[in-house]
Structure prediction request, 514 residues.
Amino acid sequence: MANDMKIELRGVKKRFGPKVVLDGVDLALPKGHSLVVIGGSGSGKSVTIKCVLGIIRPDAGQIFVDGQEVTRLRGRAREDYLRKFGMLFQSAALFDSLPVWENVAFGLIQGRGMNRRKARDIAVQKLAKVGLGSEVASLSPAELSGGMQKRVGLARAIAHDPEIIFFDEPTTGLDPIMADVINDLIVSTVKDLGVTTLSITHDMVSARKIADRIAMIYKGKIIWSGPTTEIDKSGNEYVDQFIHGRAEGPIKMEVRH
Amino acid sequence: MNIFAAIGRVTLALFAQAGRLAFFTVDGVTSILRPPFYWRLLFQQMMRIGFYSLPVVGLTAFFTGGVLALQIYTGAARYGAEQFVPVVVLVGITRELGPVIAGLMVAGRVAAAIAAEIGTMRVTEQIDALTTLATNPAKYLVVPRIVAATISMPILVGIADCIGVMGGYVASTESLGFNGSIYLNNTMNGLETNDVVSGLIKAAVFGFIIALLGCYTGFNSKGGAQGVGAATTNAVVSSSILILAANYILTNLLFNT
Prediction:
């Protein structure tokens, strides 16, 4: 079972001080699939992704990527491991000290040691893939709109041909049309590249569009998972409340955390 | 009871902070020796930390040297020892005021800038983005700054020494009626290698402290604009205090050399 899975989390736990953020997360993602984790703010979505990337070290549990246990990786082994990943951040997280093309080429220049001219050519190709012309390449990230920053972030995430891409709230902060453009881009790039993706979002429109499977996280646990087509008949009242966006139901909004 | 609890809390927090700083320092210093090396960034940081600090450090040194000559003259004249003004200015500047004043000015300029830049990168997830692009943030951000500051500060202080002595010369010849060539002659005769070298050693240590604390507070900032502001303040205050404390220790160690 474990060998067919690209990413597998078993009983991952994490707490910050007294607050339990992940309370035994189990998640399995087959190669080439697109999984979307949905859940409210503060339910532990981002922490899950950061645990897989080793940015946050879980307190307990195991994480397997390609069958390799990764939570204890350090130094060079960890850098090699991270080359498998691309990530699109919620706020794009572009390096504002570098021009757009160098942002896109960053993983190639710093991670792979490619020479700058060649890396720039590839960066321009990747920018074209996300619908941006070469005139954008020499601009600074601060000169771009939110939607364009997201596109550059996507180009950066795919520039080094990763096997796995993480999307952290890809549509948050965008207008509905730009959100749909980004969703289409995600779907088409994923199809082109044949990669495995894990996304987190609370935008159901986006989730339905980009997911093969959906999992819902609540209070640090996965409470439901299944194919996207079955989410409307999950029979789970937490899921129903979330996908219909109702204030009334079993999920109580915690005002303080 | 409450007083003891409060004292205990503060003490524990202090030790925790010192421990975190120690780990951060070890991580930063050991990263210096491990490839990859970012020469381009090192050069960039030397320009920012060293070269662009020249005007402010030079002006400060000039006026400090001038004031030193005026004040020493006031004291020396009481004992008819005016001929010692040049050598006391020389020793005061090279052993003490050159490194300390330059250290404090650079702490205000550079520690703040480093903390603000890295703090902003932290809160906008740019540091996490570095990690996902298989780039070690300690090597990419911390090492170039620490190395650049540790190399630049002695060079800056060497220049500040010359300008400070010149400040003393200008004040002495313009306001105190010293003969210029006799003043210079006395200065050159009083010059000892160890005065200058001990000052330059101090400068290197101060440079290290400035960059380290700028990076440390920046890395640990959280919570948006306010957090970055607090980090910037902390960087300046803590590096200034540590510079003065280190100055005392180093002066003790270097006193007999």
About this structure: The longest strand of chain A covers residues 5-16. Chain A touches chain B through 27 residues (CB under 8 Å). The radius of gyration of chain A is 18 Å. Chain A has a mean pLDDT of 87.
